[in-house]
Amino acid sequence: MLPQPQDLKYFIEVSKTLNLTRASERLGITQPSLTLAIQRLEHAVGAPLLIRSKKGVVLTQAGQILFTQAQTLTDAWEKLKEKTLRSYMDVAGQYTIGCHPSVALYSLPHFMGDLLENYPHLEIKCIHDLSRKITEGVINYQISVGIVINPIPHPDLVIQKLSTDVVTFWKGEGNKKIQNPYSGEGILICDPDLIQTQALLKKMKKTKIKYKTLLSSSNLEVITELVTKGSGFGIIPKRVATRSSQIKLQKIKTAPSFHDDICVIYRVENKNIPAIQMISKKIKNAYRSPFSVK
To answer: What's the pTM value of the predicted model, to 2 decimals?
Structure first.
């Protein structure tokens, strides 16, 4: 059983004055209320803290030990309470932003620096995983704010659309057979665990696009680099394929595509938390800017 911070405060005053009447006067409470507080504290500790005498009170051995530590405990509590209140009232505290690694590369650099520069009391931790895993993390209180692709509506979530993306087939410069989606000798490079990839593979069966070998990778940047260097043709989101001017990829014109919604999500009860709102605002502004997230 944890002691109440107020009871510790009362005990400290009694320990300083060694007189219940004087302590109650200085605390501005009645002596019976003070006595009850000491009794609650003794119950929480499990040992007597005071010995009453005609001259006042004397601390027991347990009381002396508690007195030496009580001020530290109350100071720690006040600091914790202040930090907690500040995180609720101000743009401050510890928060986690979650998104897919590829989404992080084309999103985080466009708002993170400005956010931390203007709000130095924010502490941000970034977590990267599949969007469905990030969404689960937000629902389960493990992640504060998520930037996710195609989130499924959930009663506990606020979901705000940021922008869109298109996932389709791309090839790099060169004329190798393994790069040609129509040669029958092509190598398809993709992440087969992505829902977008699975949908496009089904759509591909109705087209003339064929592949001989499937080269799988769970990293979209690795897929992009392999396709750029002529290792095959690949399934890549447009924002990843066009993120850098150094990436020279061509969209395969007749290929099927999959449309994505990019959204920011957080729990419903956090809609009035200033820090959550500021983080989501910075994310939305980054996507609105024509010079940032493309």
So the answer is: 0.70
